[in-house]
Structures are given as C-alpha cells and as structure tokens.
Design brief:
Strand content of chain B: 15-25%
Order of helices and strands of chain A: HEEEHEEHEHEEEHEEHEHHHHHH
Helix content of chain B: 25-40%
Oligomer: heterodimer
Number of helices of chain B: 6
Low-confidence stretches of chain A: none
Number of helices of chain A: 12
Shape of chain B: elongated
Mean pLDDT of chain A: 85
Strand content of chain A: 15-25%
Order of helices and strands of chain B: HHHEEHEEEEHEH
Distance between the termini of chain B: 44 Å
Structural class of chain A: alpha+beta
Number of strands of chain B: 7
Structural class of chain B: alpha+beta
Strand order of the largest sheet of chain B: 2-1-3-4
Largest sheet of chain A: 10 strands, mixed
Largest sheet of chain B: 4 strands, antiparallel
Shape of chain A: elongated
Radius of gyration of chain A: 31 Å
Number of strands of chain A: 12
Low-confidence stretches of chain B: none
Chain lengths: 341, 187
C-alpha cells in the first residue's frame, strides 16, 4: 500500500502552493502565476481547482478535479480525458466506482451538485475513466464547473502547482515563491513523501507488536525443544541405535526432519501472506492504514522483499534446528541399553 | 496551450498579417478571431502565434542522451549517472560525450579543435540542448558538477546574470573568452 501511495506522489507536482488565512487552508488567486513562470527553473505553473464533495445520501466523499482542456496535463489519465475531446461545461467524467455508486442512488445519466450557497449545478455524466488506485471515487470536469460547485470566484483556485525543469533549483524557487506569496504554505514532493511514510510508520506498529508476539512464541517452542527430549523420543533413538544406526546417521535424520518442518512452515506462511494480498487485497489488514474517509485499494501490486524474508529465515531456521539437534545428540552419544532403560 | 487553442479554434489564422505583437493581441480580443477566449487563453494563443510566424526561427537541438556504457574520454566517468551534465562534441566525424563542460573544454584544447567542432551543452535551468559557441558561462558558483567546479551554461546573458546573483557566481564569460588557463583553474 505504501508503494502505491509513494508511486502516486512521484507523479505529483514538484511544489504545491496553498494559501493560508487565519491559520486555515484558503483559496489562492492566480494573479502571480505569470510571475512564477518567469522564475528560472520553473517549467510549468498553473492554478488548480480540486477538492472533495460530500455525497450525503451515500454518506461518502468523492474527489473532484477541475481541469482546463487547453492546459498541458502532466498526469496520463487526465491527459486521456482531454484527448477524448468531450470535456465541456456541464459535463463530467467519473471513475468506474463512482459511476456505480451514483447509479445505485439513481443518478445514472447526470448528477445534481449543491453549492455552499445552496444553488444547484447539474452535471451530465459523459464517460467512465480509469482513475488512479488512491482515488477510486473521482469526477473530472472543467475548472469553471468545479469553481461553481465549490463556490469559488473565477479568480479563486485551490492551489498552484509547479513543475521544475531543474530539481537543483528547488531552494531558490521556494525562496522566490515566499516573496511572492508570503502567507502561502509551500509543500514539496519530499514533504508529501514524508507525510505518507509517517502515516505508515505509525500504523506499522500494529505489525511490529504482532511480530514480537510471534517471536516470543517461537522462542518458547525453541526453549521447550532444547530443554530435552520426551521419553518416547529417547526410546526411538535408543531403538535406532540398537538396530545399528550410528550417531551421525541419527543426527542426519533428525536434521533433515527439522529442516523440512521449518522450511515447509516458512513457505506456507509466506504463501498465505502473498495469497491474502493477491486474492483478497489484504482485506481487514488494509483498514489499519486507511483514513476514515478513504476507500480500500484494489489490485494491490506485490512488493516482496526477498532480502528481508531471507534474513528472517536465516535467523529462525538455524536456531530451531540447533534447538532440535542438541538434545538428540546428547541422547545419541549414550549407549543404547542405557537409553532404553 | 497556445498550440492546442490554435488547432482547435482557428487553425487558419496567420500571424504574419500583423506587424506587431500588440496588434495581434488586440485583434484577438476585439475581433474574436478565435472565438471568445479568456485572458489567459488569449495570451497563450498570441504568444504561440507570434513565436511561430514565418521568419521567427528558434533552433532546436536533440536532447543529449547517453547509454549506460558511455564514459567521459577525459576522466572515464560513466555518464548515465549525471544526465543533466552531459555535453557533446563532434570532431572529425567522431562524437564524444563528456560529464560536464569543463571536461569538454579540456578535450577541445588538448586536440586543438577548431571552429569545425560542433559543441552542444545543456542549459542549466531548462536542460535544453544549446550551441556552446552561442552560450554564456558562469564560473565560481555554489553549483558543482560531477567533477567539482564547473562552467555552467546559459542560453542568454540575462539568465546567466540571474544565476550569478542566486548562486554567488564569480565570473561570466562567453565562449570566445574561455581559455585553457581558465579551465585548468577550475580543477
């Protein structure tokens, strides 16, 4: 999941400028976009209209993005909408999941939005689009329509997005932006990445706790094994020795047995984990990382860290095998009749 | 954006019929030659039409790209790790790629390259490929290339001067002022 979010951040603008008023997020004017474009190192800068709309009937929020069809689009899926050529005022493109949700509430061909001042804006649903995984419920429309729905004036926007042609110029561009927009909050791509990592690191604690519990259980099993063999196991070794088995052969047999057990159980555990993600999209476990308003992600790409799996295996398998072999060796070196007594 | 509006709304409009940029903008605003446009769209269209009228030529060179095997002939560094610093020289039918303008100039002086050598560098701000002979260079700034102190290239003098202010550059040269001693002093 973390990888999905980080990959989405990679496609985002290098800098996002948000206005602050009385310490809260506020709209921003596009008055200085031309001045921003003159800053050396800035490849593109444009004002954006985007936000979320609460669909009260369904008790759900979905995202709205307003785009200018004549603007160059940096995201492939938005570019596909523009290339389709049908985006005009009064029309919108919706994601597959949003279309299903609207249809479920009898909005099959159009949807009525309520503005903050309780005027209505009717939008015709033109087509379904392939939305990014992190935004399954999304509607794309013209900037003018999005401004009407959010109650923005024609010169008000949600934020200003900047793309840099030279990443080395980031500190200089930020310094110049601060003089143009002293009240604005400047969010870089690095800030967005850090926010996502923090969110996941915090919630990964659940899994660290589960891991510690599993580790404790593992060491309890190991210490039980290492404390000695049961009388049945001692008799088994005694009989094998009486039949002529050498110490080496007994140890080899027990080594293979414990190796097969540890390897098989490790493989079954990893396979179950992979299948849980691949077939069930990490159901239930995903909810640990989602915010209350976010929908679960689907078709999660597997991200198997082979080195980490190998490390866990190499830390646990030798310990288990050693704990099994040592007591066997202690018994195997004794005389057969002494063991059977 | 201007190109998109031109193609969609008024592909037949010819900017050569206007003597000045302001006349074009006024015509677009008052005569609605491309339909009703917002101020932003009108300006984008006017800039596009003015830049692409007949006679207004901007030279475009292909982007400098290197494969993973390419090495700088001066220092032996692999170039794919520093794509924004790659520069190119064509000399006597052979093409050489360098990990910065400093190494390219060292090679230039070592081989007594003449005006026949084709020199291409990347503009610092835009990473656009430009002709080194028509460019301006700043030295002594706080921007370092893969080989340390570097000659930083700019398409126009104004951008070079702005860079000097932003990055504490010490000196500004055009191509003819670059000497072997200057290049050696950057090491």
């Amino acid at each position: 999941m973390q990888n999905v979010y980080l990959q989405e951040v990679q496609k985002m603008p290098d800098i996002v400028l948000q206005n602050r008023q009385a310490g809260r997020f506020s709209t921003i004017r596009d008055t200085y976009v031309d001045k921003i474009l003159e800053i050396n190192g800035v490849e593109d800068a444009f004002a954006r209209v985007q936000g979320s709309y609460t669909f009260t009937q369904a008790n759900k929020r979905f995202d709205i993005i307003g785009i200018d069809p004549f603007d160059a689009q940096h995201l492939a899926w938005l570019d596909a909408v523009v290339q389709d050529g049908k985006l005009t005022q009064g029309k919108m493109y919706v994601s597959v999941q949003l279309k299903t949700l609207l249809a479920h509430h009898y909005y099959k061909k159009s949807f009525r939005f309520f503005t903050p001042t309780l005027y209505t804006v009717d939008m015709e649903i033109v087509k379904e689009i392939e939305a990014p995984q992190t935004k399954p419920f999304i509607a794309v429309m013209t900037q003018e329509d999005a401004q009407k729905i959010f109650g923005y004036r024609a010169d008000e926007f949600s934020d200003i997005a900047l793309y840099l042609s030279n990443q080395n110029e980031l500190p200089q561009v930020i310094a110049k932006l601060q003089t143009l927009y002293p009240n604005a909050k400047i969010i870089t791509k690095e800030d967005m990445k850090v926010a996502i990592l923090q969110r996941f690191d915090l919630r990964k604690g659940v899994f660290v706790t589960l891991f510690l519990v599993s580790l404790l259980t593992f060491f309890m099993i190991v210490s039980d094994k290492a404390s000695g063999l049961s009388s049945a196991e001692r008799k088994e070794i005694g009989i094998l020795k009486a039949l002529g088995w050498r110490v080496q052969t007994v140890l080899q047999a027990r080594f293979m047995e414990s190796f097969i057990i540890i390897t098989l159980s490790f493989a079954i555990g990893v396979t179950m984990g992979v299948l849980w993600i691949a077939l069930f999209d990490a159901a239930i476990l995903q909810n640990i990382f989602l915010q209350t308003y976010e929908a679960p992600l689907h078709n999660l790409a597997l991200n198997i860290n082979i080195k980490l799996l190998l490390l866990v295996f190499l830390l646990s398998a030798p310990v288990y095998i050693a704990a099994t072999i040592l007591p066997v060796w202690k018994v195997a070196v004794m005389d057969a009749d002494e063991v059977l007594r | 954006m201007g190109e998109k509006i031109h193609t969609a709304r008024c592909a037949s409009l010819n900017a050569n019929t206007f003597d000045a940029y302001d006349a074009l903008v006024m015509a677009l605003r008052e005569q609605h030659l491309c339909g009703k446009l917002s101020a932003k769209h009108r300006e984008a269209l006017a800039v596009y039409l003015w830049d692409h009228r007949k006679g207004a030529k901007e030279q475009y060179f292909e982007k400098l790209t290197v494969t993973k095997e390419k090495k700088c002939p001066v220092c032996g560094m692999y170039l794919y790790k520093y794509p924004q610093w790659v520069s190119k020289m064509q000399l006597q039918g052979k093409v050489y790629y360098f990990d910065g303008i400093k190494d390219m100039m060292k090679f230039y002086f070592q081989h007594n390259a003449t005006s026949n050598a084709v020199l291409r560098v990347q503009e610092y701000y835009t990473n656009k490929t430009i002709d080194a002979r028509k460019s301006y260079f700043v030295v002594g700034s706080d921007v370092y290339g893969p080989m340390g102190d570097e000659l930083i290239a700019f398409e126009d003098k104004h951008k070079a001067q702005q860079f000097m202010l932003d990055h504490r550059g010490k000196q500004l040269f055009d191509f003819t002022q670059i000497t072997q001693e200057l290049v050696r002093s950057l090491d």
